[in-house]
Amino acid sequence: MVVDAATDPAQAENGRLPNRVREEGFFAPVRGSLAAIIVLSVLGAASSVVPLIAIVELARELVPALSGQPIHAGRVWAIVIVAVIALFVSFGTAFGAGAVGHFADAGLQLALRRRIIRHLQRLPLGWFDQRSSGTVRKLVENDVVALHQLVAHAIQDVLTAIAVPVLSLAYLFSVQWQLAVAALVPLAITAATYPLMMRGGAEKYRQYDEATAALSGATIEFVHGIAVVKRFGQVGRSHRRYQEETRRYVGFVDRWTRDTSTAFTIIELVTSPVVVLAWLLAAGAWLVNAGAVTPIDVLPGILLGLGLTGPLMKLGSSAQFLRNATKAQQSLAEFFALPTMPQPASPRHPAGHQVALDTVSFSYDGQHRVLREIAAACAPGTLTALVGPSGSGKSTLAKLIPRFYDVETGTVTIGGTDVRSIDPAELYHAVGFVFQDVQLLRASLADNIRLARPQATDTEVETAARAAQIHDRILRLPRGYDSVVGEDANLSGGEAQRVTIARALLADAPILVLDEATAFADPDSESAIQTALSTLAADRTVLVIAHRLHTITHADQILVLADGRIAERGTHADLVTAGGLFARMWTDYQANHARSLPEGVQR
Amino acid sequence: MIRRLLHYSSVSARRLLVTELVFIVATALLQGIAFLLLVPLLRNLFRGEMGALGTWLIALAGVSIAYVVVAWFASQIGMRASTALLDSLLNRLGDRLVNLPVAWFSRDRSGLITGIATQGAMFVSTMPYAILRLILTGFITPATVLVGMYVVDWRLALAMTVMVPIMIGGYRWLRRAIGRGDAVHSVAVADASNRVVEFARAQPTLRTAGEGAVADHLVEQALQRQHRAYRGMLVTGGAGIAAFTGIVQLSITVVLVLGAFLAIGGSIDPATLIALLVLGVRFNEPIAGAGDLGGGISVARTTLDQLDELAAVTALPEPAGAGTPADWSIGFDNVTFGYGGGAVLRDLSFTAPAGQMTAIVGPSGSGKTTITKLIARFYDPESGTVSIGGVPAPQLGTSVVEAAVAPVFQDVYLFDDTILNNVWIGNSELTREQVIAAATRARVDEIADRLPNGWDTRVGEGGSNLSGGERQRVSIARALLKDAPIVLLDEATSALDIGNEIAIGDAIDAVRADRTMIVVAHRLQTIMTADQILLLDGNGGIRESGTHNQLLAADGAYARYWHERVDAAGWQLSAHN
C-alpha cells in the first residue's frame, strides 16, 4: 500500500521532526510566523474542544428537566453563548494559523528562490554544465513548492493532532475515569497494530523508490527512443521493456498493499466513528447498569471520545505530501551545501596580462587526472592555440584561466598573481571568453550586448555590434536593438554567436579564451563570424581551442595536448619540422582538407 | 470524475471499481444510520429506561457489524481496484505512446510522460479509496442523518436543510476562487523558473557583469511577480475558505440557538436535543474534511487531463490499403508547410530522382530539415503533396513510408545498451556477423576498438560515452543495416575532429550507392559531389537548382555562396592585425 501505508501520522511525524531540527537555518526567514502558527494552532485546538464541553454542560442543565425540574434559562443561554464564541474563536484561530502559514510559505518561497540565486552566483563556473539547467529547474519549480506542505500545513496538523486528543483526554479523566479509559481503547489497539503494518517500512520505501526509478528510466528511454524504434520497426522492443518495468512496479505495489492491507483495515475500522460510537455506548450502558456512573457521565465520553482519532487520521492523509516535502528539503539542503568558489581573503591585483600555468594538475573527481603537470606561458598580445584529440584536456585547460575550476596542484597566474587571490570581479574583467554554447537572455538585444558592461552607452553597443558583423542584422529586426530575444528576435546559431562576440568586444577584457569552433551550421554566418573573431582577437592575450588546424598556422605558440600533458609546443613551422604528433595531425588534416576542398577550388 | 476513472480502466479494473463504489455508498449509508440511532439511545439513556436502551444497543451493534463487514470489503476491494487501475493506466499510457505520431515527440516529452507514469498514475489509482470515498461519505452520511432528523424533529431538520444550498453555493464559489488564482499563479511560476534557469545558464557571462546587472533585475522582477501572484491567490482562496467555513459554523450556531430556544420553551425533548446536538457537531466534520482534499484531487485531475490530451492527439490520415510507389524518386508539388506559425516552406516544388543524391543548402531557418521531415512523414504539408514514386504519402500510408526511408538526423538517440545492439536496431533479422560487417562499413569498428569491451561495451544513457560524430556514425550504420531505398541525412553542424570527419565521409559514400539520398549538406565535399543541388532562398522557396558545375557557371547566388564558403575555409586567426 503505497499512498495509504504512508497515511500514518506517526510515520509523517518521524520523517519530519529530525529534519527541522537539523535544518534550523532553513526556516530562519519565517521564524516569527512559525511561532505565530504554533500559538494559533494550539489556541484553535483548545477552543475546538470547548463547544463539545458546552454540550455536556447543556445536557447537565436540560436532563434534570426530564424528571420535571425547571430549566434555568439564563444558564442555558450562557452556555450557548460560550459555545458559539468558542466555535468562532476556534474557526478564527485555525483560519488564522492557516493564513499565517500560507503567507509564511509565500515568504519562504521567495526567500529560498533568492537564496538559490545568491548561491548560483557563488558556485564555481564549472558547475554550470548541461545537467545544471535541469537541477536548477527542479529546485525552483518543484522543490521550493513541495515545501508548502511543511510550512503551510504540517505544523498546524501535527499540533492539532496532539493537542485535541491530549486536551480531550485530560477533560475526560477529570470528569469520569472509567469512560476515559474506554475511550483510550481504540487508540491502544491502533498503537499495537501500527508496528505490524509498518514492519520493514523503511526498506519498503527504499524498494518503492527503486521501482519508481526503474519505471521512470524505462519511460524516458521509451519516449526518447520512440522516433528511432518506429523508423526501424522495433517499437515492440522498447514497448516490451516498458511493459516489463510496469509489471514489476505494479507487482511491487500490489505485494506491498497485500502485506499491509489487513493491519491497515483493522486500524481504519477500529478508529471509525461507527465502531467507536458503538463501543463507547456499550461500555457506558454497562457502567450505568453496574451503577458505577450516572447516565449523564456517558455523554462526555461519546462526544470527545469520537474526536480522538480524527485529527490523527487527517494528518495521515497528507503523509505522501509530507514525504515529498522532506525529500525536496533534502535536495535543497544538498544544493545549498555545494561548496562555493573560494574567495580570496585579501585580494591582490594582477600586474599585467601575462598568463602562466605552473605544474598544473587537475581532475574532476579527485581520481582521474585530466591534466598533468602543465607548464606554459602566454605573453601579452600573443595568440596561443590549444590542439589535441578530443579528450586530451584542451577545453579543461582553457577553463582553468577564468576559474571554471580551480587547479588541484600548481598555479595559474595572471600578471604574476594567482587567479585564486584575485578578486573575482577583477578576474572576470581581465578574462573574457566566447564558447560554443551561446547563451542569450530573453531580454532586448541591446541589453544582451551590454550584459557584461551594464553602463555602456547605446553608441558603444552599436560600435561593438558593427565590429561583430551583427549590426545590420539587428537593424532588420522589427524593433532593432530593442527587439527581445525569443519574442521578436529569432536569431540563427551563427547570429547569436555574433551577439556574444559583440558582448565580448564591449567587455573588452585584455585576456580572451576562445573556442574556435565556428561550426558550419550557418554557412552564411561563417565568414561573418570569422571576421568578428579576428576583430575580437586583435591585440589581446588570446588562448584558443583550435579544431581546424589551418586556422592557427599564424599562432605565436601552439600547445599540443595528449592525455592531459603537453606533448609538444612551438610555432606551426617548428612543429611541422619536428615531425612529431602535430606533424602527423597536420598531414591527416591536410589530406581531409584536400577532400573537402576539391581540385579546382583548392587555395 | 468517476466516469473519467472508469474510462481509463481495464474491464477487470472497472468491475472492481464499481463494486468498490457500491460498498463505499453502503458504508456511508450505514454510518448515517448508526449516527441516527444515537437519538433513541441517548433518549433512553437519559430517561433511565435501561430495557429499551438494551434493545437499541443491539440494533446499533447489528448496524455496526454490518458496517464493519461492508467497510472491510470496501477496503479490500479498494486495494485490489487501486492496483488494477494502476496497471491499466500504465498499460493505456504505453499503448498510446506507441500509436502517437512521431511529430508529437519532436519536443522533449519525457518529463511529462514520466510524471504521469510515476507520480500521476499512483495518485489517480489511490484516489477512489483515499479521496472519492471521503467525498462520497461527506455527502451521503450527512444526507442520511438529515433525512432521519425530519422524523425526529422537523423544525431543526428544516433549519439544517436551509443551510444546504448555501453551503453548496459557498463551496462552488470557493473552488472557482481557488481555480482563478491558481491559473494566474502557475503562469507566474513558469515564468520565474524560466528566468532562474536562464540566470544559471548565463552565469559565466554574468560573472563579468558583477552584481546588479540586467539579468539580476530580470530574475528579481520575475520572482517578485511570482510572489505577488501567490499572495493574490492566497487572498482570493483565503476569502473563499473563510466564507465556506463561516457558513458551516453558522449552520451549527443556528442549530444550537434554535435548539436552546425550543428546549427552554419546552417544545423539544431535552434528551432528543442533546442527541441532535451531538449529531450537529459531528455533522460538519465529514463536509469540512471534503474541503481539505484539494491537493490530492488536483494532482489526480491534472493527470487525467494530461491523459485526455494524449488521447486527443490526432494521427495522420492512413489509406485503407497501402499504396505501392513506382520507384524511389521523391516529388514535392507546391508544398506549403509551417509548424503552426508562419509558413517555413511556400509553394515548394522539386523532384529528387531515384538513386541519386540531392543536396539541400541555404541559410539557417530556410526549411532544409523541414524538407527531410516531410519526406519521412513526420507531418503532412498544409497544401500541396509530397510523393514517393509518384504516390502521395497519405495514399502510401505511414508504414510504407517508414519502411522505405532511413533517417540519419542530427539528434541521434542511443539506447543504454551495447554499441552493437544499438546498430542492430536497424534490422533485427541479421546475424551478429552481418551487423558487424555493416557497422564496419560505417567505420563504427574504430569506435568499438577504443571501447573497453569492444562491440559489447554499453554506451551509457543517451549514448553519453560517445561524441556527436561517433553517434552519427552509429546512426549511419543503422541506416545501412536497414537497407532502405531512401536515405535522409542531416549532416552534423558541430565541428568534428578530423578522424570523425573522414569516417563520416567514408560512411556516406558507403550508403550512397544505388539509393535516393536527400542530404542537408554542410560539407563542401558533399555539396560538390551531389547529383543535384537545391539552394533555398530563405523565404520558403528554391532560389537555384542544378549541378555544382551548372550553378557555378550561372554565376548567381550559389556561386557567391560557394566562393564565400571556400574563402571561409582558409581563414586564419591571429592576435596581430
TrEMBL record, chain A:
Species lineage: Bacteria, Bacillati, Actinomycetota, Actinomycetes, Micromonosporales
Major site of localization recorded for this protein: membrane
CDD domains reported in the protein's UniProt record: ABC_6TM_exporters (cd07346)
MF annotations from Gene Ontology: ABC-type transporter activity; ATP binding; ATP hydrolysis activity; ATPase-coupled lipid transmembrane transporter activity
Topology relative to the membrane: Multi-pass membrane protein
Domain ABC transmembrane type-1 stretches: 35-324
Entry keyword annotation includes Lipoprotein: no
Domain ABC transporter: from-to ranges: 355-588
Alphabetized UniProt keyword annotations: ATP-binding, Cell inner membrane, Cell membrane, Membrane, Nucleotide-binding, Transmembrane, Transmembrane helix, Transport
Family under the similarity heading: Belongs to the ABC transporter superfamily. Siderophore-Fe(3+) uptake transporter (SIUT) (TC 3.A.1.21) family.
Organism whose genome encodes this protein: Actinocatenispora comari
Transmembrane stretches, start-end: 34-56, 76-104, 179-197, 263-286
GO CC term, one of those recorded: plasma membrane
Name listed for the protein in its UniProt record: ABC transporter ATP-binding protein
Pfam families: ABC_membrane, ABC_tran
Compartments where found: Cell inner membrane
PANTHER family found in the cross-reference section: ATP-BINDING CASSETTE SUB-FAMILY B, ATP-BINDING CASSETTE SUB-FAMILY B MEMBER 6
TrEMBL record, chain B:
TM spans (from-to): 21-41, 53-74, 130-150, 156-174, 233-252
Residue span(s) of domain ABC transmembrane type-1: 21-293
Cellular component terms (Gene Ontology): plasma membrane
Entry-linked PROSITE patterns: ABC_TM1F, ABC_TRANSPORTER_1, ABC_TRANSPORTER_2
Domain ABC transporter residues, every copy: 330-564
Annotated compartments: Cell inner membrane
SUPFAM superfamilies given in the database record: ABC transporter transmembrane region, P-loop containing nucleoside triphosphate hydrolases
Chief location of this protein within or outside the cell: membrane
One Pfam entry name: ABC_tran
Topology of the protein relative to the lipid bilayer: Multi-pass membrane protein
Entry's family note: Belongs to the ABC transporter superfamily. Siderophore-Fe(3+) uptake transporter (SIUT) (TC 3.A.1.21) family.
This protein's name: ABC transporter
Keywords assigned: ATP-binding, Cell inner membrane, Cell membrane, Membrane, Nucleotide-binding, Transmembrane, Transmembrane helix, Transport
Example of a GO MF term: ATP hydrolysis activity
Matches recorded under InterPro entries: AAA+_ATPase, ABC1_TM_dom, ABC1_TM_sf, ABC_transporter-like_ATP-bd, ABC_transporter-like_CS, P-loop_NTPase, Type_1_exporter
